[in-house]
Specification:
Radius of gyration: 38 Å
Strand order of the largest sheet: 1-2
Strand content: under 5%
Length: 1494
């Protein structure tokens, strides 16, 4: 091997320039992968220095971290100290100079990242202001290690260097001392960690992190967290001891003994023993301090206490969510060590660092073998971690950069597809997800803040190699989950009843507030504010504002990757790439990226429109290419225009005025005959079909906005090609049936949109409004007739070869064989679009009001109405004989709806929905035109179909519709649980992607399964019109009651299923739920439960219906009120002034809902939370009362909640109804929230009785909880972390206005139940004691739920027992004892049982403390003598017996037991003579009492 003089830096030819390696090391990506051929070239005569710009648009590239070179790269090297002087002079900048000492270098330990800073990630992603983070302030106190610490480090380092020994941590790596919580941290690799030194090291680490946390008072925080710091240090020490061998431990002990004074050692031993005792006696609910998340927990606790206010976060934080978040954080952190192959699969590499054991498998041979596989062999064989791939992407070799982006794209694609194919449910249910199949964690880590993927992708989209740009663009496309999102939206486009899309921007819920009763289900918000999306310019900065940095862009990308890319200027770069004549593959990829960004939100769509000439550049490329040629890029270009037009009516109008719509839709005129199209090649048919479909959709969007209706006259001849019935034989022969059906379906959907522009048929249909402008074009009725004829010819399904076989659905094997044909679903979509068009026509015929009726009947009936009905019956779409199993098309669709193929199921449900709408309209029109009773002789000349039409099509099809209704009620009753399990950490998904990229299993809110359930819910709404609830006064049958209960249960399940695109459907469900007939059945159930005879009057039902419907619609369906910015000043969106940040919390929506065909996720509440029905009881908490009607709302809420609770008890026990699944903690909280504003709800006896009955029902549920699994009432965990504030306000009201009201007292007393978590019980007791309201509680026998729940298990919480004792000693329980209040009973029971029965060894100090306090109180207050004797004689009741024994008298205590208890009192005195004398007095008093009793 040729020797190289180490003094001579090698030179290489890079990008056509000859430079040396010293200079190359400073260039972006200037790292050459090991193994690639290097050529030593002559040193140029003129040297030059590396470019050093003062301001860089992006950070300088970083080196790869795949592993160090432990062997010299070149030949023999000189001695170890030959070039020490050069090395010291060159410092850190001489990378190539390290070759000389490579042979003598010790193994370089890989730096350990102590863990993702997930607390900062939550602030970034979930922050309400979601703004560019404030720059971290420098800590006021810099960390300085003491001289002793430095000496200890140096001493240990010298010892271990001499022995060449190393004790790795559990990851086989050195320790990491992080002095900063950000990415900029100083890693110190230590050879060993001595037990003595370990304390200093851990303390240094913890305080370093706390410095970054910027607490308001470091001293106060130090006092608060002293115990947690000690426990964390102790756990770390124990972990280190566990890793040390016995010899090492003995050696360390000997070293300590030699260094320390024996007296000091004895003192330390005593102190350690005392700490050990205290640790055993104290029970803490916190996590073990040795875990990675312990410091994170401390940070979160500090945040909840209000000590950290730098970043406002609306995401609710509680102890439960903290524990769940810690578990999720561990899953994400584990991804750091995973290696991936080039195809995105996870490799279980033998080179992985072991997580346990004292011997590391990291060896020089292993790394050499891995490097050989990566370079000479298979580059992906050994795999790359995510961060290694990111580092490789910064290489200066274009091939390596391309390889890295291919690997990143493969990992992203593999992860999102596995997530989408997983079972729909909660991401927290991860018992079966670990390491090698936890794709949710892989996706979240890759898009998370640590890899900084968005910054990398944006940087290398500026590369000067086409292969790198293409690979980078494909990685961006995968990060935006383009393919899966478009697959979802393709199905949404086919559903006729869905007129609006939903943005894909990541979202989170707003934080619950006490003013709303802590009720969850707040307004959704976007992770990234729209003001932070658009790139900043110097002109947009206000006075005193600092210029945004690259780190700000990275933070926004951590909140929302699409928003971060836009902020980094990706749109301008894409426009430039379009202008440079990109390849077809790159052009297609770039348009796909724009589509993904456009679907993100209205702000991103506006950003695309505002990017100068970007849209025009795309249109120019669309028109400049071969006119007749159809490419994928053209299809996607039309799709992009359609999305932009959907988001804003102004965009649509601009496209029309500038002629863009005409330019991109000219292909609609291209084909003049069906044969011309079908005779082209199969590939041409597929491409032309896709293009025509997108062009028709663009036209439909224009029509929905009120434009382009006049285009129909010119396009009608071309549309007839697709509207007429084709030759199915030719389509099947050429295998283009699906393509034809797709075009025809879109044509009918366009006609449906045009039909909705028709004026009412009976409102002077021939006359058009003279004031109609271009923006409100109307279609005329004269053009409707031919369209109806074409539609009726197309629904003759018995003449279609493929659909005709569906009538044989009873032959399941044959039907399953036909279902393998992919043309079934397209034909079903075609039928559904035809039905949508026909229903739109019929709805335009139905009179808008009764004024158009003549004597209650229609003046005349259009001929096409009965014609449509007869065609439906004659073609077997609906049954005409009223017999189930007659083989109608409806029964076939009901069967297809249940099969596993989701798209076929959705298409079948859409067909059923359209068919029901058409039939319902036909029946209504026939009934309005035929109000006069007919003679039976008139029907004798009718055919069977005509008789069915006259009698009502729905009436004849009741058997098959009843079967469908039953199936849908079962579906709604079970599918709602999937929707409720999706929301994670108060957000749609844990990742900052878009759409499916939110990272929820199964796709979350964007899953096909959920979409299918929502379509079924809409179908169920139409069936409710077919099967209405009819109530006859005082004639409620058991069968009718069961039917109503099932419908109510199904309606509530459907309400939980529907999302923001279905607000109208939820509105109709609420109307059904609160209609007068439904309320009558609810009233009947309540009267049966309360044994009442008289119910409400008719006007009372009407008033109750209006109050409840109005409240629920306003609470859950109304959009958030937005502040309007200055008129016409759009630059306000670009500003980020702190003074005006309140104006940027929401997206200013300048257009009304009618001008936007997109249903925003933000600023609305759907989907509803599980406890949405409890909102009427929390309305009293709200500070924004419109009027005094909120009392009526609360009373109506009591009526409704009691009714549905009673109805749910009649359903089978295995039924998981929404009402039953609302946690009991939320139900009890809602009752308390009602009283937060006083006792106004108790003004009427009726509402008072309802409230008490609801308390009894919830008490029974609480008793059942005890028997099932003893779930805790976690008010603080499940509702809000500051629940003690709620308790204080409630008790304040109780003490001020209740005057000991029993019902109010029962509600307050429930917080003393043993199921309630200890902090809430303590808060309730202290609040009652401070308000002098302990005596106002009712007796324990009258409290909510059984008494055993308040008594068992015996209290063992130290703070609660001390609170009982404090109230006893202070005299706060004196009146409670005289009144027999539950407060005295609880204090007596728990203190007596703890002191004399349940106290164990480690609780003896607490017992002694309580006894001493009670004896001192006994000695000072003679009036407490009776209380103390009761405490001594108290016998713990047998709570297992039914009914519970009397708590006042109890069982007589045997004298021997009294003697034992006196002995316990003496032991607790611990030799105190004065207290022992008091015990003797107690003994004499008891003896006298016993003598008197005998």
């Amino acid at each position: 091997m040729k020797k190289v003089d180490p003094k001579k830096p090698t030179t290489q030819k890079i990008f056509g320039s000859v430079i040396n390696e010293d200079d190359a090391s400073h260039l972006v990506g200037g790292i050459v992968e090991k193994g690639f051929t290097e050529r030593t070239l002559k040193i140029p005569t003129t040297s030059f220095s590396a470019p050093r710009p003062t301001v860089l648009p992006f950070p300088v590239a970083r080196h790869r971290a795949h592993g160090p070179h432990w062997a010299p790269k070149f030949g023999d090297v000189r001695g170890k100290n030959d070039h020490d002087g050069e090395e010291n002079e060159e410092g850190d900048e001489d990378f190539t100079g390290m070759d000389q000492i490579g042979a003598f270098a010790k193994p370089v330990e890989r730096k350990e990242n102590k863990g993702l800073d997930f607390s900062r990630w939550r602030e970034i992603v979930a922050s309400d202001n979601s703004s560019v983070p404030y720059k971290r302030e420098e800590s006021a106190h810099k960390l300085k290690s003491t001289s002793n610490e430095r000496k200890a480090v140096a001493e240990v380092s010298r010892n271990k260097n001499n022995s060449n020994e190393r004790t790795p941590d559990k990851y086989g790596k050195g320790a990491t001392l992080s002095a900063d919580g950000d990415a900029k941290s100083q890693d110190v690799s230590m050879e060993d960690r001595h037990p003595t030194l370990q304390v200093n090291t851990q303390t240094h680490n913890i305080f370093a992190n706390k410095t970054d946390a910027r607490f308001d008072s470091q001293e106060a925080e130090g006092r608060q967290n002293a115990s947690s710091l000690e426990s964390e240090i102790d756990a770390e020490n124990r972990a280190q001891l566990a890793r040390m061998s016995a010899d090492e431990i003995a050696e360390a002990q000997a070293e300590l003994m030699a260094k320390l004074n024996p007296a000091v050692m004895e003192a330390l031993k005593r102190k350690g023993q005392e700490k050990l005792k205290r640790g055993k006696s104290s029970k803490s609910g916190s996590h073990q301090s040795g875990e990675k998340g312990s410091l994170l927990d401390q940070m979160k606790n500090a945040t909840s206490q209000g000590t950290r206010r730098n970043v406002e976060d609306d995401t609710p934080k509680s102890s439960a969510s903290t524990g769940v978040w810690d578990e999720w954080s561990k899953r994400v952190e584990s991804v750091r060590e995973l290696s991936f192959s080039l195809d995105g699969n996870i490799l279980k590499s033998k080179f992985d660092v072991p997580k346990s054991g004292n011997i590391s498998t990291y060896a020089e041979q292993n790394l050499s073998e891995r490097d050989y596989l990566r370079t000479e062999g298979d580059p992906g064989a050994a795999g790359y971690t995510i961060k290694e791939a990111v580092a490789l992407a910064r290489s200066m070799v274009p091939g390596q950069r391309t390889f890295a982006f291919h690997l990143i794209a493969s990992v992203l694609d593999r992860a999102i597809h596995n997530i989408y194919q997983s079972q729909l449910g909660c991401i927290l249910r991860s018992q079966d997800r670990h390491g090698f199949n936890d794709w949710e964690a892989i996706w979240a880590f890759t898009l998370g803040p640590e890899p900084e993927l968005a910054l990398l992708l944006r940087m290398y989209l500026d590369d000067n190699h086409n292969s790198v740009i293409l690979a980078c663009a494909r990685a961006i496309q995968c990060a935006l989950t383009y393919e899966i999102n478009e697959e979802f939206f393709e199905i949404v486009e086919r559903i006729p009843t869905l007129q609006r899309d939903a943005p894909t921007a990541p979202i989170f819920r707003s934080r619950p507030e006490i003013e709303d009763g802590f009720l969850h289900g707040g307004f959704w918000k976007y992770n990234a504010k729209p003001s932070n999306i658009l790139p900043f310019t110097r002109d947009s900065l206000g006075n005193g504002e600092s210029e945004p940095t690259i780190q700000d862009d990275v933070v926004v990308a951590g909140q929302d990757i699409a928003a971060g890319l836009i902020r980094m200027g990706i749109l301008q770069r894409i426009q430039y790439l379009f202008e440079t004549e990109p390849s077809a593959a790159l052009e297609e990829c770039l348009i796909s990226i724009l589509i993904g960004i456009a679907r993100h939100s209205q702000s991103c769509a506006a950003a695309i429109m505002e990017c100068q000439q970007l849209v025009q550049t795309i249109i120019d490329r669309f028109t400049s290419k071969e006119q007749m040629e159809i490419s994928t890029s053209k299809i996607k270009s039309v799709t992009l225009l359609k999305i932009l037009a959907r988001f804003d009516k102004k965009n649509c109008l601009e496209f029309i005025k500038t002629g863009i719509v005409q330019k991109v839709t000219w292909h609609l005129y291209r084909y003049t005959s069906f044969d011309q199209w079908v005779k082209s090649t199969n590939e041409a048919c597929k491409l032309s079909s896709a293009l025509l479909v997108e062009q028709l959709r663009l036209w439909k969007v224009c029509v929905q906005h009120g434009y382009c209706a006049s285009y129909f006259s010119d396009l009608f001849p071309a549309l007839c090609i697709w509207l007429n019935v084709p030759a199915f034989g030719k389509l099947t022969e050429n295998n283009v049936l699906s393509e034809y059906a797709a075009i025809a379906k879109e044509a009918y959907l366009v006609l449906g949109a045009l039909t909705r522009r028709l004026p009412n048929f009976y409102s002077h249909m021939q006359q058009m409004d003279e004031g109609t402008t271009e923006e409100a074009e109307n279609w005329c009725w004269a053009q409707v007739g031919p369209m109806i004829d074409s539609a009726l010819e197309s629904i003759r399904i018995k003449e279609m070869p493929l659909l005709s076989r569906l009538f044989e659905w009873q032959n399941e094997e044959k039907l399953n064989g036909d279902m393998q044909d992919s043309a079934i679903s397209p034909l079903l979509w075609l039928i559904s679009s035809i039905m949508d068009m026909l229903s739109a026509v019929l709805e335009a015929v139905i009179p808008e009001n009764n004024a158009e009726l003549c004597h209650g009947s229609l003046p005349w009936l259009p001929d096409f109405v009965p014609k449509i009905g007869l065609e439906i019956l004659e073609n077997g779409l609906m049954s005409s004989d009223g017999v189930a199993g007659s083989g109608s098309f409806v029964e076939c669709l009901c069967y297809l709806r249940k099969i596993n193929q989701q798209e076929t199921s959705i298409a079948s449900s859409s067909c059923l929905q359209g068919l029901l709408r058409v039939v319902w309209c036909v029946d209504k029109m026939i009934s309005l035109a035929n109000n006069e009773p007919r003679n039976l002789l008139e029907y004798q000349s009718f055919t069977r179909e005509e008789e069915t039409l006259a009698a009502g099509i729905l009436h004849s099809s009741l058997p098959e519709l009843t079967t469908l209704m039953t199936s849908l009620m079962e579906s709604n009753g079970s599918e709602w649980r999937h929707m409720q399990s999706i929301e994670t950490f108060g957000r749609g998904g844990p990742a900052p992607g878009i759409g499916v990229g939110w990272g929820a299993p199964g796709g979350g809110f964007w899953s096909k399964k959920l979409l299918s359930a929502q379509v079924d819910a809409r179908l169920f709404i139409y069936l409710l019109d077919v099967f209405p609830i009819v109530s006859v006064k005082d004639q409620f049958t058991t069968e009718g009651m069961n039917s109503v209960i099932q419908k109510i249960n199904s309606v509530m399940g459907a309400c939980l299923l529907l999302g923001p695109m279905d607000s109208y459907a939820v509105d109709k469900l609420l109307d059904f739920l609160f209609q007068v007939p439904t309320l009558k059945y609810i009233d009947f159930s309540i009267r049966q439960f309360l044994n009442l005879n008289q119910g409400f009057q008719e006007e009372d039902y009407v008033l109750l219906s209006d109050v409840l419907a109005s409240h629920f619609k306003k609470k859950w369906l109304s959009a958030k009120q937005k502040r309007k910015s200055a008129a016409g000043d759009e630059k306000v969106l670009h500003k980020n002034s702190k003074k005006r940040s309140v104006l940027l919390d929401t997206i200013p929506e300048e257009v009304s809902e009618s001008k936007c065909l997109v249903a925003e996720w933000a600023h609305q509440r759907l989907p509803l939370p599980l406890h949405w029905c409890l909102s009427p009881l929390s309305v009293l908490c709200s500070s924004s009362h419109e009027s005094l009607d909120f009392i009526k709302v609360a009373k109506g809420g009591l009526f409704f909640l009691l009714g549905i609770e009673l109805m749910s008890t009649t359903l089978p026990a295995e039924s998981h109804t929404p009402v039953r699944n609302v946690p009991i903690v939320w139900k009890l909280h809602a009752l308390s929230a009602t009283l937060l504003s006083g006792m106004g709800i108790f003004e009427e006896d009726n509402s008072r009785d309802l409230y008490k009955a609801l308390q009894d029902v919830y008490g029974q549920l609480l008793d059942k909880e005890e028997k099932v699994d003893a779930k805790k009432l976690k008010f603080k965990t499940d509702i809000h972390e500051n629940y003690s504030t709620f308790i204080d306000n409630l008790v304040e009201q109780f003490a001020a206005v209740s005057y000991g009201d029993m019902i109010f007292g029962r509600q307050v007393g429930v917080y003393l139940h043993q199921f309630v978590e200890a902090p809430v019980r303590l808060a309730a007791w202290n609040a009652l004691s401070n308000a002098c309201a302990l005596e106002l509680l009712p007796p324990l026998e009258k409290c909510i739920a059984a008494t055993c729940g308040y008594l068992e298990p015996v209290e063992d919480d130290e703070r609660m027992l001390e609170a009982y004792c404090k109230s006893w000693v202070s005299g706060a329980l004196d009146k409670a004892a005289r009144r027999g209040s539950a407060s005295f009973t609880l204090a007596l029971h728990h203190m007596s049982s703890f002191i004399f029965q349940t106290c164990s060894g480690n609780m003896l100090p607490l017992r002694n403390k309580l006894v001493k306090s009670l004896l001192r109180d006994y000695s000072r207050k003679k009036q407490h003598e009776v209380l103390f004797i009761n405490l001594l004689e108290y016998q713990r009741p047998d709570t297992r017996s039914e009914p519970s024994p009397s708590l006042k008298e109890g069982m007589p205590l045997h004298s021997r037991d009294v003697v034992n208890r006196l002995q316990i009192l003496k032991e607790a005195c611990e030799g105190n003579s004065s207290l022992l004398s008091e015990v003797e007095k107690v003994s004499s008093v008891f003896s006298r009492k016993q003598h008197v009793d005998s």
